[in-house]
Amino acid sequence: MGDENPIRTLGDYYKPSHKGYVNTIEFPVGNNVVPLRSDTIQLVQNECSFHGLRSEDPNQHLKDFLKLVDSLDLDGENKEKKRLLPHHGLDLWLQIQIFYDHVDCITQMGIDYVAGGRLRKLRPDEAWATIERLANMKIKGGTMPSSQMKLGVFESGVHQLNYDTLVRHPIHSGDVIDWEFLARQNLDQAFFNSINTDPFFGPQWGNLFHVNEPVYRELVREFFASFEFDASPYRYDPNHLGVRFSLGGEQKEISLLELGWRVGLYYERQSRENATLSRLRNDDTVKESRLLMEFWPTIRDGGFNVGNTKVASIRDPRVKLAHRCIAMTIAGRKETTHRVTEIDLYYLYCIYTPEVACNIPYCLSKYLKGVREKNLIYGGMLVTKIARSFGLLTDELRDALSIEPLPHVFKKKSLIAMGMIMKLQNGMCVWPALRAVKEEKEAAEEAEGDEGHDGAGGSTAMYQNISQGGWKVHQARWMDQQDEQWGRLNTWTGQQDERAY
Questions:
Q1: Model pTM?
Q2: Domain boundary, last residue among 357, 390, 416
């Protein structure tokens, strides 16, 4: 009669459908029915029972069961039916689903690997053949690396519980800035010059903001489920091996110094220099709230209200861009990116205050440790960066991993909408003038009674019609204002130093 059920792949079977439904119970062929004796049942229970425990080997279970079926006195067709699974009488697709759902995650990954990551695209007979291939695979001589079989399986019960919890949490692919576009507009260098207030840590911020990597689901969950950071010794010894995690099925234990170059903050050779070690020992890991509150007026008018201060209130568009980069990396999050948190303010303070530098590896480690406490997993790009530095991303491993969608890229329209850049009539994009410059210029022009021209610091509509020569004049005025702004900031910093003594 053939198969009256039109569904063909496992994925189709998982979708509820009553169309074409047929009886799932199929009786043995002919009269050759061999009853299962009590001793046979007892043999299965004693020798071939499988409970899905972590200590059990599902591959060996399959081998033992198939060997037992072969020993029974059955004809060929009935023997093949009983070879399927102990749950004979159920459709093959349902047997596969039950088996897959009740083995541990390491076996599931093995099945997915052998199936090329497309188990649900296979027909039931193809899927079962895949499981049998895995059962007969010898790990040492097979095609699946042993380290890969350890993905998602931990010796620590705490880490295993973390992993099982993270499986239920969505992973964010991350956000990136279209730096290539800013480079074509000759805007990127001005931004990076503005954040390089410290010759050692300034370039590190730039390197961190440039991280752009694919995100692999299994690696992200494995890394954050096992990430541990022993914070206190790092304030005195960056060489202390206090950063521990599992990645690619391998246990890693590294120092804060090593973590810095593995995420790309600086080169490996720099980590061996005494100057690097000295700076990490002496740079800031925390700041008093009083200093942060005193810093805030230098970049924005008005006071700082924790949890209720909008990014739009920041005067300098480059500081706005720096804040967005912070919210995408070392304080990575998806929500509340339009507000300045206290930790955001601390990083801005470190970036824009002369003679103040942030111990970025230390702060990054504290952030990574807290990711698993969030409902949305962020920071996957950093995980990939670390995995790449260890040489773990082999072709075999990448083929077996699940990749998240590409990150969101803040392109031209987004940057304009967020007030970070503006477009002129000729298509060129520029940094908008500081609000303080515009307000002072508008006040002067109003006093002169010049109603027909908004001047170099006027509204956005004026910028759209400005000539390139006029823009250069405006930029010169803007840079003068910047110099004055930094002069006030230097004076403020000097006052803090005097207070310290």
A1: 0.64
A2: 416
